[in-house]
Amino acid sequence: MKECGQSRKASTHPIASSSIKSLRIASWNVRTLYQAGKTAQLTTEMKRYRLHILGVSETHWIQSGQKTLGSGELILFSGREHNQHSEGVALVLAKYAQKSLRGWEPHGERIIMTSFQTRSKNINMNIVQIYAPTDEAQDEEKDAFYDLLQEVMDKLPKKDINILMGDANAKIGRENTGYNRILGSHGLGEMNDNGERFANFCLFNKMVIGGSIFPHKRVHKATWVSPDNVTENQIDNFCVSQNLDYHSMM
Where is the Endonuclease/exonuclease/phosphatase domain (predicted)? Predict the structure, then answer.
């Protein structure tokens, strides 16, 4: 897929909506959607898992816009403004979820935000999909990413249901000393620099890192496996507002 959809400015316009009762939400790193057949493969897997909203990292699509597929899914995407096909984030909405979409905002190649109406007229559900710089990236690049992400989070009302998800490229580990309000003890491995940045960000914004709360088999914790199947990392995360009282489960 090349340039398509609406412009960055047009894509931020609100969309007529109606509330829905429940959603199945997931986030995947797909490595690329900039190849023939990749989008069809993605939506096939999305249907197989019966997902209503799918966050996607590393689309490698450029610019920002929206596209309705022949199969009915709506893709909202945000990428680089020039012709370098790298990074890129998106949200894929099944027809069921499209009914509740209120609006969305692209924020470059690493952040996209969507807002949905809930059954409560005074509360929305906001989803921020991210693709963070790797642990090897320069500190300046990491700082710029988290500064922009904070600007996005600052716009979200605290009373809303806020979800932060995607490829954070952050190892949060098992040790949660100092982070017990937002981090469980069931992570994988040890916290790295990106993990510390991400944990501090979630602590400041009162976002619970969901993948660390409940015990799982090791095979179910890893979200990235090296090509030789030797190294496993848990670097993709799903975080929810602390006001949902998830800390009582930890």
Answer: 26-171
188 neighbors 205 (Cβ within 8 angstroms) = no
Among 95, 92, 110, which Cα is nearest to 38's?
92
Q: How far is CA 14 from the centre of its chain?
A: 20
Nearest to 161 by CA among 242, 71, 79, 98: 242
DSSP string, 187-250: --S---HHHHHHHHHHHHHTEEEGGGTS---HHHH-SEE-TTS--EE--EEEEEEGGG-GGGG-
Cα angle, residue 155 at apex, residues 123 and 19 outer, rounded to 5°: 25
Whether the Cβ atoms of residue 62 and residue 1 lie closer than 8 Å to each other: no
Q: CA 34: distance to chain centroid? A: 19
Whole-prediction pTM: 0.84
Strands 101-106 and 111-117: antiparallel
Look over the chain and give the mean of its residue pLDDT values, rounded to a whole number.
Answer: 82
Residue 119: predicted pLDDT: 87
User: What would the pLDDT profile of 31-47 be if each residue is shown by its tens digit?
Assistant: 899 999 999 999 999 99
Radius of gyration of the chain (CA): 17
Tens digits of residue pLDDT in 94-107: 999 999 999 999 99
Instruction: Give the 3-state secondary structure of residue 73.
Output: coil
Nearest to 76 by CA among 23, 17, 127, 32: 127
**Edge-to-edge strands, sheet with 74-78:** 25-29, 53-57, 89-93, 74-78, 64-68
**DSSP structural state of residue 33:** S
Alpha helices in 80-213 (DSSP H): 95-98, 139-154, 193-205
